[in-house]
Amino acid sequence: MEKIKSIIQSSIDVKQEVLQNEDLLSTVNATVEAITSSLKKGCRIYFCGNGGSAADAQHLAAEFSGRFYTDRKALPAEALHCNTSYLTAVANDYSFDVIYARLIDGIGNKGDILVGLSTSGNSGNIVKAFEVAKQKGITTIGFTGAGGGAMKSLSDYLINIPSKDTPRIQESHIMIGHIICQLVEENYFSGNG
Predict the structure, then answer these.
(1) Closest by alpha carbon to 111, among 134, 132, 87, 138?
(2) DSSP H helical segments within the chain, as ranges?
(3) Do residues 113 and 35 touch, judged by C-beta distance below 8 A?
């Protein structure tokens, strides 16, 4: 029982640090505004990650394209790793490092949003996708751990959770992701419902 309580407390401690970090909360708020503005201009949101972060990316994309709290029209959001034929072909023919970059190059447009989730901030395929996104005028939002890694300098908005513990970072990524989904939904549909 004590181990279970200790793990729960660790998760609470990281979230408490997030709660007290005014700069991070301001970044979350700015992210909500950027996504809302992009959607109102008819642009799209793309998500990418690896492993558990890919699952989180897919989860958040579904919150936008499906629904969050309200019964409303779908928002244009997509997780980039869901086409396994594409992923395996590009990874086999080129490199796993370019799977997201090639897709963003092919389907991303100026004004779109690219959200990349990487606890280290150093996932090569996300870094390359962010580089392509920057060239195309696509806004980049990085969800990382404490330092931000290589994604730090490539993120227009960096949500770097103050932890180096992967499970605790991912738990906070989903919490922040849900906050963003809720607030974007409220903002977007407050006059458009």
Answers:
(1) 138
(2) 2-20, 22-40, 52-65, 84-93, 99-107, 124-136, 166-189
(3) yes
The structure's pTM equals 0.95
Main-chain dihedrals φ then ψ at residue 63, nearest 5 degrees: -65, -35
Q: Which single residue is written with the structure tokens 């920057």?
A: 134
pLDDT at 191 over 90: no
46: left (phi over 0), alpha (psi -120 to 50) or beta: beta
For residue 176, pLDDT beyond 90 = yes
What is the C-alpha separation between 41 and 46, in angstroms, rounded?
15
State how far the alpha carbon of 154 is from the alpha carbons of 50, 89, 94, 118, 174, in Å: 18, 27, 23, 13, 21
| 113-117 and 139-144 strand pairing | parallel
**46: which strand partners?**
78, 114
